[in-house]
């Protein structure tokens, strides 16, 4: 695939064939030199052929192959003339990340780290089919789908301020539970408040380095502070919503008379019954995911208090922010100098709104939206802030993680004969996991270098480095 450098941190895939717009990849020269993502680049070019796409089909430095659209991809479509595609959101609808900071420092946790990680692993259900964190009736489940994070807070599973410091206030108003299938509802019934498998995690970390004092102060972060970072999504319910939607979109797309370069790009016009049905179901799954992360934060609070024998005031575990990185949103962006009503697909990409934007919580508005970027369980994760340049260049979006560099299978092969948990323990990181292959598939070598990914988006100016977090205790699915 031909990549033309157009600025020091941005490359273009020129328009050819059916492409309506070019492709655009944000990454450093160094990352571009080592890039081996032919398949994912082809996917960027494929996305550029879809009706109503604006400016460019974009990808972030953490890009890799995904279903139809690449992971690490951003694509914005005109609301009136564009399409919406389940493949542009992903199977784990509103997979996302939540960060809480505490009043504790590293020295408070080191002596109890083993007990803490054991208790977290006991109190938070992990693994593929994990269930049983909260008892939910069907009636309650419908409320979860409508209300999102606020539902959990109403049950006493969190604080009102948690919801205020969540993207979209933890609720997409477009949710309509009547379009969610029985099968999806069944799958969601027992899984609320569970972590799930593989790449999902809850991590106790420490603020290792601050890059931007002002923003760190606004986000309530200081050096040596203990943090909790968690990553999960909408579990079986979201997966089923995606699967159900692909089934009807695969049929529907044939009636649109467009030529798809890949059948995994099945889509519908946003303003069509099929497009609206997907959007309303997707919003339900998004709300479920926010309730899920809300409950997990509550479980983390309970567990810390139990293990340390302290009350909520001394623990002071307050939410910094919660972001989604698999979602489609209706937003207003300036395109060619004019405000446009657009549908932004972020798949393995994070919203990165600028200082002053009304969607940024008031306490953070002067520094920009907090962005949460997990790296891997053996290295680091980052907190960044949104920028004006992101609004201008990437529809207010940035990367979502380090991104996989090894497939699960390749990672398993490379880890043969190694004891990953011991390698981590030697670095002072305690890990508990449930899946038989989880540690091998998720070892640090399976992911790109998070420092380079973050340098790329910081260099491109689409986000600004605020703080680096280092892991201490990790529980994995
Ligand atoms: P996803 O799996 O949602 O595409 O990506 C989430 C990102 O989380 C990955 O790209 C990877 O960088 C990061 N990640 C996966 N597992 C862990 C973990 O155990 N700890 C941390 N800090 N990051 C992780
Ligand atoms: Mn994710
Ligand atoms: Mn996920």
From TrEMBL:
Q: Which cofactor does it need?
A: Mn(2+)
State the family it belongs to.
Belongs to the RtcB family.
What name does this protein carry?
tRNA-splicing ligase RtcB
- Enzyme class per UniProt: ligase
Question: What InterPro entries does the entry give?
Answer: RtcB, RtcB-like_sf
Q: Give residues annotated as binding GMP.
A: 199-203, 325-326, 374-377, 381, 400-403, 476
* Highest taxon, organism lineage: Bacteria
Q: What is the lineage of its organism?
A: Bacteria, Pseudomonadati, Thermodesulfobacteriota, Desulfobacteria, Desulfobacterales
Q: Which PROSITE patterns match?
A: UPF0027 (PS01288)
EC number(s)?
6.5.1.-
Q: Which UniProt keywords apply?
A: GTP-binding, Ligase, Manganese, Metal-binding, Nucleotide-binding, RNA repair
- One GO BP annotation here? RNA repair
Q: How does the annotation summarize its subunit structure?
A: Monomer.
Q: Which residues bind Mn(2+) 1?
A: 92, 200
């Amino acid at each position: 695939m031909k990549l033309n450098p157009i600025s020091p941190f941005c490359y273009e895939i020129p328009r050819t064939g059916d492409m309506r717009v070019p492709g655009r990849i944000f990454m450093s020269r160094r990352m571009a030199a080592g890039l081996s993502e032919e398949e994912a680049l082809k996917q960027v070019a494929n996305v550029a052929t879809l009706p109503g796409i604006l400016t460019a089909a974009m990808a972030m430095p953490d890009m890799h192959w995904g279903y139809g659209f690449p992971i690490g991809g951003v694509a914005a479509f005109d609301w009136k003339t564009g399409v919406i595609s389940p493949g542009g959101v992903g199977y784990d609808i509103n997979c996302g990340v939540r960060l809480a900071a505490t009043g504790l420092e590293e020295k408070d946790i080191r002596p109890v780290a083993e007990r803490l990680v054991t208790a977290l692993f006991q109190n938070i259900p992990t693994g593929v089919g994990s269930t049983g964190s909260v008892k939910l009736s069907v009636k309650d489940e419908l409320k979860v789908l409508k209300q999102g994070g606020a539902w959990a807070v109403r049950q006493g599973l969190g604080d009102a301020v948690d919801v205020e410091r969540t993207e979209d206030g933890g609720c997409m108003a477009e949710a309509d539970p009547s379009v969610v299938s029985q099968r999806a509802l069944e799958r969601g019934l027992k899984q609320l408040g569970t972590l799930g498998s593989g790449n999902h995690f809850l991590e106790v970390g420490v603020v290792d380095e601050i890059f931007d004092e002002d923003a760190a102060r606004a986000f309530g972060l200081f050096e040596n502070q203990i943090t909790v970072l968690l990553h999960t999504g909408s579990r079986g319910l979201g997966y089923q919503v995606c699967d159900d939607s692909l089934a009807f979109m695969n049929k529907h797309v044939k009636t649109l008379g467009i030529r798809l370069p890949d059948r995994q790009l099945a889509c519908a016009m946003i303003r069509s019954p099929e497009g609206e049905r997907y959007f309303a179901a997707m919003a339900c799954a998004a709300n479920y995911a926010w309730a899920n992360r809300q409950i997990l934060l509550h479980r983390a609070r309970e567990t810390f208090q139990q293990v340390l024998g302290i009350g909520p005031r001394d623990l002071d575990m307050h939410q910094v922010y919660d972001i989604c990185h698999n979602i489609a949103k209706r937003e207003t962006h300036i395109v060619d100098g004019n405000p446009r009503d657009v549908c932004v697909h972020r798949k393995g990409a994070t919203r990165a709104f600028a200082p002053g934007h009304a969607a940024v919580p008031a306490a953070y508005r002067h520094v920009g939206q907090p962005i949460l970027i997990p790296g891997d369980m053996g290295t680091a994760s980052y907190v960044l802030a949104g920028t004006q340049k992101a609004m201008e260049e990437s529809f207010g979006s940035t990367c979502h993680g380090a991104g996989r560099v090894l497939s699960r299978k390749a990672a398993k092969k490379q880890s043969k004969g190694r004891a990953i948990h011991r390698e981590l323990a030697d670095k002072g990181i305690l890990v508990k996991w449930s899946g038989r292959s989880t540690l091998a598939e998720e070892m640090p070598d399976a992911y790109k270098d998070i420092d380079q990914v973050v340098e790329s988006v910081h260099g491109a100016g689409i986000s600004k480095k605020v703080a680096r977090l280092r892991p201490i205790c990790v529980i994995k699915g």
